[in-house]
Amino acid sequence: MANPLGWAGLAQWSFLLAAFGAMLLAVWLVDRRRRGKPSARTEIAALGLTALWAMLAAGVGQTYFVTQAAEVLRNLGWLAVVYASFARDGRHTSVGPVRPVLIVLAMLELFQPGLLLLNVRYAGNASAQGMIFQMSVMFRLLLVTGALVLVHNLYVGSVSAQRGAVRWICGALAIIWGYDLNYYTIAYLGSQVPIEMAAIRGLATLIAVLLLCIGALRGQSTLRFSPSRTIAFQSLSLLVIGGYMIAMVAAAQSLAWLGGNVGQLAQLGFAFATTIVVVALVPSRRLRGYLNVWLAKHFFQHRYDYRAEWLRFTRTIGRGGAGATPLHDRVVQAVADITDSSRGLLLVPGEHGDLMLAARWQWPTLEVPAEAMAAASAAFFERRGFIVDCDEIRDGVDHGGEATLMPRWLIEDDSVWALVPLLHFDRLVGLVVLGHPPLPRKLDWEDFDLLRVVGQQLASYLAEHGGQVALLEASRFDEFNRRIAFVMHDIKNLASQLALLSRNAERHADNPEFRKDMLVTLRNAADKLNALLARLSRYGAGNVERLEEVEAADVIRAIALRYDPVQNAATGDGPRVFVTDAQPCKLLANRETLEQVLLHLVQNAIDASPPGMAVFLQTRSEGLWGYVEVIDTGCGMSADFVRNRLFKPFVSTKNGGFGIGAFEARELVTAMRGRLDVESREGLGSRFTVRLPLAATASLIDSLSSPSGGGGNDSAKKVA
């Protein structure tokens, strides 16, 4: 075993050197300050208190009352240095996240003088002194654990270019408190002060003073502390873990004092209960969400870590590749991630100014009508750029008249939380509907500011995407024009052939062989023309020459009759088309054009339905308009397909199809002053609704469509 006198001598010399070095550095910093160079007062005071403590430890010993009181002052001095390092350059608001931790650590250290007095009071009671020693060491362990966490955050949370200002002071404090952590841990486990570690404690202090001297010689730059939320959350977690460990040690020691079987049984029950609590709470997403909200509310001036939010935003929007989700879905996800919402929708403007569903993100259950929001409501968002909190509307709060403009399906569903407009150069390109987050909260000014900026950025992405789609569509039209050029070339060849035949007929009409060849040539030309017309008949221009009164109920009955296997043997056992509700509905339309549109929609419904499934037709009238609906229970379509592919020309899911059938149907309905709406759910089916003006209200619609009536179909729509 080592000689105690040898360790005592080493301790005396090491503390003397540490005291000399700390005092010398403090005096040099005072002189620098007198000459106008930057030197921190708190660091000078902490060095002076460290020199005092080291001098007393060398002179009278570490265990005496006066030396331990000096150690309390030393620790408080270095905590003040940490506080000043966080608040340097006058930005005292940066200490907000750590000020409560510093106050708690200082209060823990202030318990030590009371414990010292109690130790003197119960000098003759060995059990009482043992308990006081354990409590003192436990408080010191908690102090050094929290102090090391703060030192870690002080270095990691500073800007990378300015870490040189705190590198040396953080290293010195890490050595002082890191050594104390091991020193007091061994003291607690052994219930006595470790003589060997106490002897070389002065050397650790001397090394820390040397690091501070190096830092002072290298100079200090201005420090701006900017801890990330991740660091703050991890720091809080470390403090909680440290407190939990201290509580476990204290509880175990208290139970051990019970003794006997009672102590063992209590230890077992305590361990079992704490394990159940930890297992139940740690994986809880709701608990983590609560902690994040609590930290943001009480420890930060701002709710959001804008750097982290921007990086996540760019990763979500920039994700590409064959397996990536559509852009419209990613737009919803990018907004929902900011507010921790678990679901959302994207509404985009239609041709008539109203909003229609474009994408769902993790929200398949919400029922969205074909006209999700009227044009007047969309104009409000475009004009005001207002972010709507639906909970406020439900509570009767109306800031700018938005309550009267919101559709009922949004307000009646309590799961809808907020509406975020996406504006591009004062033009509404989309509206994101957000669901409530797992942890309910109110939107505040910071939410509104961030969502408004993100909405503008997303609007630019959508506008760019729309421009690319328009360019692609233009290129496809160009390709279609080239195809038509080939068709015209074939027709020109046939016309030339027939012209030549007619000229030869004038000279050789009496020749039997010529007549025979002429018939073959005419038959071939007719076959070619008929084949060409058959291919192009369904893709005609769709001009509507004359509108008249048409009974829609008669039209859907005639269409259903075409698919009746009894009336038309050609259909065999194919699909059935049923008329479920044929209300009298006299429309202003062109009968042939309306039949062409409905036949196309019915055929599409049959193609999308499994064999044997029926397609349903029905009519109804409402206000100034009549409606004809084609309903199927087939595979349905996604919102992305309806928005971006269904009515796009030259996009077809059928082999050899031109992909302009649905496009032509909508154009024909528009030419009859109506509109074609679609509601579809994947796996459930689709509903196509043809809306046309009633014949009885045609004059009224015409007056509303005149320049004095306020602008075409939109005016008629507002009256409806």
Your description of this structure?
It catalyses: ATP + protein L-histidine = ADP + protein N-phospho-L-histidine. It holds the Pfam family HATPase_c. The chain crosses the membrane at residues 12-30, 42-66, 72-89, 101-120, 132-156, 168-186, 198-217, 238-259, 265-282. By secondary structure, this protein is of the alpha+beta class. The chain folds into 5 domains: 10-227, Rhopdopsin 7-helix transmembrane proteins; 233-301; 336-457, Beta-Lactamase (2-Layer Sandwich); 472-538; 540-719, 2-Layer Sandwich (Heat Shock Protein 90). The chain is built from 24 helices and 12 strands. The protein has helices spanning 4-34, 41-59, 65-86, 99-121, 126-156, 164-190, 195-199, 201-218, 229-258, 260-281, 285-298, 306-318, 327-339, 375-384, 390-394, 408-412, 445-508, 512-536, 552-562, 591-608, 639-646, 661-671, 698-705, 712-719; strands at 344-349, 355-361, 388-389, 416-424, 427-435, 548-551, 577-582, 586-589, 615-622, 625-632, 675-681, 685-693. Strands 2-1-5-4-3 form a 5-stranded antiparallel sheet. The protein has a 5-stranded mixed sheet with strand order 7-9-10-12-11. Helix 5 (126-156) packs antiparallel against helix 9 and helix 12 (306-318) runs antiparallel to helix 13. It is elongated, with a radius of gyration of 42 Å. Residues 220-225, 538-542, 567-573 and 708-720 have low confidence and may be disordered.
CATH topology of the largest domain, anyone? Answer: Rhopdopsin 7-helix transmembrane proteins
Strand order of the largest sheet: 2-1-5-4-3
Helix content: 55-70%
Compute the number of structural domains.
Answer: 5
